[in-house]
Input
Amino acid sequence: MAFMEYFLYIFLFITLYFQIFLFVSFFQKKSTDNTEKRSPQVLNYLSTTIIVPCFNEETTVSRTLDSLLQLDYPTDKLQIMVVDDGSTDATWEVIQKYKNDSRICLMQKKNEGSKFSALNFALHYIDTELVGVLDADSWVDSQALKFYMQFFSDAEVMATIPSMVIAEPDSFLRKAQKAEYDIGLFARKAFANLNAIYITPGPFSVFRKHVFDTLGPYKEAHHTEDAEIALRMQKNKYKIAYSQESIVYTVGPKSLKPLLRQRVRWIYGFLRNMFDYKDLLFKKEYKELGMMVLPIGIFRVFITIVLFPLSIWLIVLPFVRWIEKISLVGISPAVSWNIDWFFVNITQLQLFSILGIFFSFFTIWAGRDLIKEKRKFTIDIFYMFFMYTFIAPIWLIKSSYNAIFQKKGTWR
Amino acid sequence: MNIEHKKYLLVLLITIGIFLVVFGFVNFLNNNKLAHIDDLQRKITADLIATETQFELLKTAPCSALGSSVLSSELEEFGRKLDFAQDNEGVDNPDVIQLKKYYSLLQVKDYLLMQELSDKCNSEIYSLLYFYAPNCDDCRKQGYVLTEFKKEYPELRIYSFDSNLDFSVINTFSSLYNFNGVYPSVVIGDAVYEGFMDTKKIETLYPKMVANKEAYMIQEKGKVFILESLEFSRLKTTGLLPKETSNNIFIYEFIGDDQKVIQTVTLKYNSETKRFSFADKKEEVRETKGVKKSTQ
Output
């Protein structure tokens, strides 16, 4: 047990180190930022195509397309390519109502089992300066694309990603995900300051066409093509920016099973991609991304796998002792309310937990401040704590098991 | 050193700083606790010497002048707090070991003193010596049982000794008994009982104490029986005290405002039906009326 404790403290030290590192990075002014942000009036609006891949999205696709049509962006500079990836529901019929809009182009293809093929299918037909993706379960704020132009005015910026927000959370798990995504924004900002963004998410990442012309199209990449392309860009020192004011709303999985499936796919994809891109790890030339962000990302998966059984044991052991005791002497009815402060125990672990909770609250405050949300501390934070204590270990353990034994999950 | 290295170093320093503060704070608290136990130990030592001296002084004095139950509760508190500190600090902490030695020493002294007291004054003192070893499952269970047993019978004095404590007093003490080094072991009087014992088994070893307790419980029930019966509901009294108990006959006295006995009640207890009845009901009722008249 003493050995386990040292183990625990070493893990805690690394975690705390990284957390503080993120803090410092969050507040650090980006050193490589050499361009002055231009005001939107003098921005150069680059011609843009947004690909909307859909597979059985009959209920959400209209909202996605409507939000794109309402983007505050010059009509002649915006193209929308809807790719029906062999849907078996009424998606194709639903999107027919947009066929007369000059900005929208409808396409249909056979499903090949992964999203990357739908994206590459559309890429063939695109000759605009920018190419974006918007998943059909997400929709954008009308100013989102306009804000991107501030970043693309820097010729070095090859892609820009938005602030992702869970839309209209209506279930326990969706509320938990809302808080989780808001915390994610804090990390995203810190990573952006470090030039260490390693994922360009499906909801509204926009690239220069140059990226695909020079690095090639999307790859299958263990069903996480959005992580692979970002890593490929990082490997080639292409800059990825984060536009915190561009907000995109996405719908999280409502119930446990799809959530687990989604997360197993993400973590599995991350681990497998990390294996494919292990050249990035611990290389000085990749700076913070290679030295800190990616190694810690892997470390965080495995720390949970080690700590979860340990913490379960720590919870179960007193319970086992208690059962043993009452089976011997029965439940003693006399409860003393005389609290002797001597017996109130304060341990290092408790103090670290308090510190951790404090950090979490701060990161959620900072994350919500980025998207100018007024209500900073809401009940969903506790839902998130619950999700991360009891549900996250399941997907982390399952995805690492799959990654090690190379078992593929399904995309959807 | 470039700016990036400075950042890694700065973060490292902050992290180390936080770790030092957390560990330092907990260490400070634990040291305070150990200091508190140390104070407790000093107090008990002083009390013990006082009792001993008193004992010497009053060798010829009546036994009633000697208090016997003062130390017991303090020693118990000392033991509990030491146990707690040991769980937190670990068995290897030198301060804990030192305090445990003190604890054992005080226990032995208390035990001897009580033996002497019981011999001289012919008073009944129930004691139990408990020898255990750390990391032994049966000892943990025995600990639970004894803790509960002590709650049930507060008059029992339990002295516990950690066999792993390398301490000559314990070694000498345990060598007095025919002791094979089996843990847990319990010594009652001169008899050694090896291995785990449950509550029932221990109860059989103290027949008198258990009988007393049973009699006491019946006595208390009898009190309730009297107070609930209608005859006495209008009696002006400040208390009902048990006077005598023998052979299923329980005698109680009602005490009036002036601390004088205003009425005596005798109950008969049927141990088969577990019911009470008034032993001389008719007389009692008549007497009750008389009392009421006189008090009105």
Observations:
- Chain B touches chain A at residues 3-4, 7-8, 10-12, 14-15, 18-19, 22-23, 25-26, 29, 33, 36, 81, 84, 88, 90, 140-141, 144-145, 147-148, 151, 198-199 (CB under 8 Å).
- The helical segments of chain B are 3-57, 70-89, 94-121, 137-152, 168-175, 199-205, 207-228, 281-295.
- The first helix of chain B runs from residue 3 to 57.
- The radius of gyration of chain B is 28 Å.
